[in-house]
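re: that chain from earlier
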Amino acid sequence: MNQGEKFLRKVSKFKRLMGITNLIHYIGKAEPNSLPSETPIEFDKNYSSWLHLLYYYKAAIYIIAEAAGKVAEAFENSLKCCPSYCDSKRGLGYNLMRLCTTTLKCDQDEPVQLPPKFYEQRPIDRKMSKYDSWTTKRLRDTTVKVLQEYLVEAPQCVKNYPNACYNLAYCAVVDKNMSELSIMNLAKMQKNRDFLSLVLLICL
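^ sequence. v structure.
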């Protein structure tokens, strides 16, 4: 892909992001007192019942832009609009895990400083994320909390359920907290392709 094509793709992503952001703004202005949706599929209730999906799509654009902090913020906003939307909860947990593992070499009591590449040449991610000021420990603890909530709330039959088990177990491995690596989580991961990778990590 040449530079011109890359530029056009960036412009296209920026336009989609701005379109979703404007739509979220208009809905919030039209229905300022709307309560969070009780279920993710109440689309005929009001315009606000679509907000959790709009934030979810916004997170998807930030994923392409490799802006993990902004991804996590979008998933968090999605959950504020619909706390029962498990896809956003899993997405939030996974991206907090990414931020946590990025900062593992930092002191756990120091604020997180993300690599400059997250903000270089990416117009849609020039604003700092609130997670940039979080310590590694706070990121890690929140990751575990969110993923544990997902495993309780989400049906075990969904295809991403084993991935969440792996992510939670991975946090325990990298943090050397093997007490959190329960037999139950290992059993749930047995059908996941990353199970062998986790076993190798434990053995190292």
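The radius of gyration is 18 Å.
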